[in-house]
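Quick one: co-fold with manganese (II) ion.
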Amino acid sequence: MTLAPPGGLRIDRARLLSRLTELGSIGAIEGTTGCSRLALTDADRGGRDLVRTWMDHLGLHVTVDGIGNVIASTSPHGGAGAVMMGSHIDTVATGGRYDGNLGVLAGLEIIETVVGAGLDLSRPLAVGFFTNEEGSRFAPDMMGSLVYVGGLPLETALATTGIDEAVVADELDRIGYLGTAPVPGAVPHAFVELHIEQGPILEAEDYRIGVVEGVQGISWTELSIEGQSNHAGTTPMHLRHDPGYVASRIATFVRELAVEAGGALVATVGALTLEPNLINVVPARATMTVDLRNTDEEALAGAEARVVGFVAEVAKAEGVEVTSRTLARFEPVVFAPEVVDLVEQAAVDQGLACRRLPSGAGHDAQMLARVCPTAMIFVPSVGGVSHNPAEHTDPDDLEAGANVLLSTALALAGPS
Ligand code: HGY
Ligand code: MN
Ligand code: MN
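Sure, here it is.
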């Protein structure tokens, strides 16, 4: 069975690339092609408004729900029974212009291409961008899609306080995206997300398309370490209760734990602050985050237990108090084999070298997979770099990924 779209239909490359550039210019990081649009900031509002304008121009039925997810559909019933595409347009503070944006703009491109070709499908098409996928400002990540599928109560999400003490509900209201469409949202027929790989595999092994079979489990923890502030010069080493020292021991431990695991586990201490953060003061307090990920749930839980044990041991020895807060915890997700097969078939039909792989990063698709058959398509990241303004994907690969998304969506929507 071939999945080539009827009449060799393809996306409009120039339109997709120019929209990626235009969206990337909002929150642009000077001197780079990257952008900074942390969730619910003015820059995020700018990105949302621009994509919303394109959705409106297409005459789509657009809804904004209680957590600010925006869904545009060819049907007045939104995502219900639709073949839904999409991703996110919020970024980390030092983001690139493709992470998330590609999936949203390619979904819009597919709809514009299909509508322009006058194709009659048996199912509606929809594209969405979900609020706060990154989770950098407000944890957990994938917040909007998690609320959309009923995995997090709306009230809990709205009451969330960010790293800057802002509150989700206030910020959503301030940027004009505290919507009224109900959550959990309508259940799609299927969901397909195009995304950059954000890792080195496809480029290193010379593949054009990643056929994503699932997403690894994620564990995010914040540790607050209370010690005793003291004079750096007069306090003997054996009398210190130094949270900075404990934080550095924990950071070293998680790194060595991941290296020892030989590849399946990854561990990151991405945020670490000392107070008062002065050269001649033994810190009073250290606050840090630990991000652990593994494709195997049991191994991930085992790594978490090892970290808990080590933290207790090193805190006792140094005489500091540690309190921990879980910021996010998602088990590994396996995508629907029938949709994964369609993605692979579409790539093969278009003569694109492809391989199956899991996703190292979290994605909205891992949440939509809770309610409908879901899969993802990856395109290569140059140098495997992402969450970095230098993030780049070759335009030919952007186009190829969008055409695989087109074929997959048409296979799922089926001719009328
Ligand atoms: O953290 C992640 O994997 C995603 O970028 N939110
Ligand atoms: Mn992303
Ligand atoms: Mn990201």
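If it helps, Residues 133-135, 141, 361-362 surround (2S)-amino(hydroxy)ethanoic acid (ligand 1) (CB under 6 Å).
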